[in-house]
Amino acid sequence: MFVSIKEDASEAGITAGKKAAAFIREAIVSKGSATIILATGSSQFEVLQQLTHERGIDWNKVTMFHLDEYIGLPISHKASFRKYLKQRFVEKVPQLKAVNFINGESHAQNECKRLEELIRLLTVDVALVGIGENGHLAFNDPPADFETQRSFLVVNLDEACRKQQLNEGWFNSIDEVPLTAISMSVYQIMLSKHIVCTVPDARKAEAVQHTLEEDVSNLWPSSILQQHPDCYLYLDDSSASLLKNKESYISWGS
Fold first, then answer.
1. What is the DSSP code string of 157-174?
2. Would you give the end-to-end CA distance of the chain in angstroms?
3. Most exposed: 20, 86, 115, 161, by fewest CB within 10 Å?
4. What is the pLDDT of residues 128-152, one digit of tens each?
5. Distance (Å, whole) CA 81 – CA 69
6. What is the secondary structure of the chain as a DSSP string?
7. Does residue 95 contact residue 57 with C-beta atoms inside 8 Å?
C-alpha cells in the first residue's frame, strides 16, 4: 500500500484527485473507456473538486457508480449522496458515458440486484473511497461481511456511523439519521484495479492506525485494504497522528 502523509486535508485531497485522474486517463488510453466508483462525505470535498478541474479526460468515455445511499432518504435532502455527487461532480464535468446512482427510494433488494447486474459487466478502474471513524468502507460497518460476493447489500448503520453523519452536519438530530442503507460490498470494492483512499482529520486517526498497523479484521473493515494489490492512502498530519511508525510512511510523491 502506498501511503502519503500531507500537512493538511486540502493537500491530501488535491493529490488524491490528481492520482485518480491519472488512472482514468490511463484506462481510456489503454481500453477506450473507464469505470470509476466515487465516495461522498467531507473527506472527498477536495478530491472531487480537483478531479473536476483535471484536463485531458474524455468524460464521455467514463462510467460512474457510487458507494452507498440511505434507504428512504429523498434526493432533495442535504444528506443525500445522489444530491452530493450531482452537485459536486456530475454537473461540473461534461456528460458522462453513464451515471449509475443508487436509488435509496426504490425497493432496496431490487435496487441491489439492478446495480449488481450493471457493475458485473465492467472492470472498475479506480475506486475513490474514504474510511469512517469506525473503520467502515462504504457503509460496511463492523463487523463487516468479508465473505459475501454480492456487489451491493442492504445494511444496518451502527450508532458510531450514525453519530458521525450527525456530527458532520448532514442531519439536525440523531433521530433523523436513517437506520439502513444500500452499500457496495467490501468484495466489490476490492475488485477495483486501483483504490484511492483519502482520510483526513484527527477523528479518523484510530481507524487509520488499525488500517495500517493492525491485523486484518472485519471489526475494522478498512484493514482489508492491506490486501489490495494497488491501494493509495492519502492522509494528513492529524489522521496520521496515532501511527506508531509514522516516519516510515511519509512520502512526498504522488
1. PPHHHHHHHHHTTS-SSG
2. 13
3. 86
4. 999 999 999 999 999 999 999 999 9
5. 6
6. -EEEEESSHHHHHHHHHHHHHHHHHHHHHHHS-EEEEE--SGGGHHHHHHHHH-SS--GGGEEEEESEEETT--TTSTT-HHHHHHHHTGGGSSPPSEEE---TTS-HHHHHHHHHHHHTTS---EEEE---TT--BTTBPSSP-SS---SEEEEEPPHHHHHHHHHTTS-SSGGGS-SEEEEE-HHHHHTSSEEEEEE-SGGGHHHHHHHHHS--BTTBGGGGGGG-TTEEEEEETTTTTT-TTHHHH-----
7. no
pLDDT of the residue at 252: 46
For residues 90 and 98, is the Cβ–Cβ distance under 8 A?
no
Quickly state the pLDDT bin for 248 (edges 50, 70, 90).
confident
Residues 6+ apart with CB under 8 A from 121: none
Q: Which three cell numbers stand for residue 100?
A: 449509475
Specify the amino acid at residue 110.
Answer: N
Q: Does the model's pTM come out above 0.90?
A: yes
Residue pointed to by grid coordinates 470535498: 45
pLDDT class for 214, splitting at 50, 70, 90? very high
Q: Which domains does the chain have, with CATH numbers?
A: 2-234 (3.40.50.1360)
* Grid cell in block for residue 45: 470535498
Task: Report the alpha-carbon angle 223-226-232, nearest 5.
Answer: 105
